[in-house]
Amino acid sequence: PTFDPSIANCDFESGFCRYSQEQMIGSSWRRVSVKPNIFRNGDHTTGAGYFLLAHSWLSPLSGYVSRLIGPTLPGNMKYCLRFYFSLRGFNQTDQALAVYLQQGSSQERIWTQGEKSRGIWITTDVTFQTSKPAKVVFVSTCKSFWDCGSVALDDISLSLGDCELTEGSALPTLTGHCDFEAGLCGYTQDKQSDSGDWELRRGPTPTSYTGPRADHSTGFGYYLHMEASPMLSGQSVRLLSRPLRGSRGPQCLSFYYHMYGSGTGQLSVHLHKDGEDALLWKLSGEQSVAWLRATVEYRSNIQHQIVFEATRGSSVRSDIAIDDITLESGPCPVTKIEAPVGSSNEIE
Ligand SMILES: [Ca+2]
Ligand SMILES: [Ca+2]
Ligand SMILES: [Ca+2]
């Protein structure tokens, strides 16, 4: 029987999956859901879900060693481990997060983080090989309270083979997925019925207190953005998908949107067919400082296009961004009802 590496996947939305911890005082990753603000992140999966947090404030001692241990992986295989992490408030980040491979009583470090403490979700991947059965261990170490901040961890995934050989994208290669890392993937700008174009952008936006600080796919990549500054209130930009085949059954569109800023206008998604737009989804006004996931199930039995339209609000703090659009045939997966954000484990 072939080994299914997805047993080591976890988005932490409904528990710890197959991960466990050594129960020691002052040494635990907590599963939390928090309402994001400019000082703390929401989760990576949906923007409103759960993630793991290791934080010196959660520890009764002045330092901690938090170890999260994965399921046993068979030996004689090559693996690609991917995950998202975010560091905040560290002066010394060298031991903030490391990944070890544990075989019996010996362990070997296979990855250590080398990022500044920037408070954004970034992804990384590690290729490793093991001759004997082994476990992956995520370790956050804080030696002195004063040098430490928080480490967040989310969306761990494991696949077989070398990370280098599986596409550069952080997500499994899906047809119908666009992360904007290599252009518009067949999406096109509307040149007729709007007042400007979506911009491909990387990193923070030029106006403060609006727009994302980084993209959703990797933390280093590109997203599509409507910069409010050169536009007038009520003007819009439109992005068109390539013509899509009709089908009898439902189709699922999912994407991430970023609507942060006091004057945020409207983001809408339309089904364009027979020369007309039909509204599928719409949201107005400031939503969150985090990237949030939207899913839209729709039907069209004839050829159609999907249109993303952002409309500028009343002020320059009106940026709207989108990233990681996925189009799949079939119904959208049923997502469990989320607990209200911030209802448990309020941090701060
Ligand atoms: Ca999550
Ligand atoms: Ca991206
Ligand atoms: Ca345009």
From TrEMBL:
One term under GO cellular component: membrane
A Pfam family of this chain: MAM
Mark out the compositionally biased spans (Basic and acidic residues): 192-202
- Location of the MAM domain: 8-165, 176-334
Q: List keywords of the entry alphabetically.
A: Repeat
PROSITE patterns linked = MAM_1, MAM_2
**Which Gene3D superfamilies does this entry report, sorted A to Z?**
2.60.120.200
Whether Iron counts among this entry's keywords is no
Keyword Repeat listed? The answer is yes
Region span, Disordered = 192-211
Which InterPro entries does the record match to this protein?
ConA-like_dom_sf, MAM_dom, MAM_domain-containing
> What is this protein called in UniProt?
MAM domain-containing protein 2-like
Organism in which the protein naturally occurs: Notothenia coriiceps
> Encoded by which gene?
LOC104953310
